[in-house]
C-alpha cells in the first residue's frame, strides 16, 4: 500500500518489510493492538526485539500512541494527524470492552480537565472506560 510507505517516509523512517507489515496491522485493526497481537500476526522472521523496537520508533515518531491497561500491559493504537515526533496529542478516552476485550480510541470523547493542586503539573492523563462495546451489547 502506498499510504504505508508515505507514512514511514514522512516520519523519516526507512521503508522496511517489517515496518510495513506492522503498520499494515494497525491500519487494518478494529481497535488497539498489543505486542502479543502483533507477534501473532507478524512474519516468523520478526523476533520480539524487532517488533518492540519498531513499536518504540513508531511511538517516538508520533505514528502510534500507548494505551496503558489495568493489568500493567501496554496496547498501541494509531495516532491521528495532530501527532508528530515527540508530540502526542491523543487527548481522548479509551474504551475497553469487558466481553471481547477490544480497546477502542473514542476520538470524539475528550479527556476531562483535571484541576490539580498547586505545585503539581500534568504530563499525561489517561482515561479508560470499561463496559460493553456496541458489537457485544447487541
From TrEMBL:
One of its GO terms (biological process) is negative regulation of DNA-templated transcription. Zn(2+) binds at residues 97, 100, 133, 136. One of its GO terms (molecular function) is DNA-binding transcription factor activity. Its cofactor is Mn(2+); Fe(2+); Zn(2+). The keyword tRNA processing does not apply. The keyword Chloroplast does not apply. Fe cation binds at residues 88, 90. It comes from the Bacteria. This is Transcriptional repressor. It comes from Arachidicoccus soli.
Amino acid at each position: 500500500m502506498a499510504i504505508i510507505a508515505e507514512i514511514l517516509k514522512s516520519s523519516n523512517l526507512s521503508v522496511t518489510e517489517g515496518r510495513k507489515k506492522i503498520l499494515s496491522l494497525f491500519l487494518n485493526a478494529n481497535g488497539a493492538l498489543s505486542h502479543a497481537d502483533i507477534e501473532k500476526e507478524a512474519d516468523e522472521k520478526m523476533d520480539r526485539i524487532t517488533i518492540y523496537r519498531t513499536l518504540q520508533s513508531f511511538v517516538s515518531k508520533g505514528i502510534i500512541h500507548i494505551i496503558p491497561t489495568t493489568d500493567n500491559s501496554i496496547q498501541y493504537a494509531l495516532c491521528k494527524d495532530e501527532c508528530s515526533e515527540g508530540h502526542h496529542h491523543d487527548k481522548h478516552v479509551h474504551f475497553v470492552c469487558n466481553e471481547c476485550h477490544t480497546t477502542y480510541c473514542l476520538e470524539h470523547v475528550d479527556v476531562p480537565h483535571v484541576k490539580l493542586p498547586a505545585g503539581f503539573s500534568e504530563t499525561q492523563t489517561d482515561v479508560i472506560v470499561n463496559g460493553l462495546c456496541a458489537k457485544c451489547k447487541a
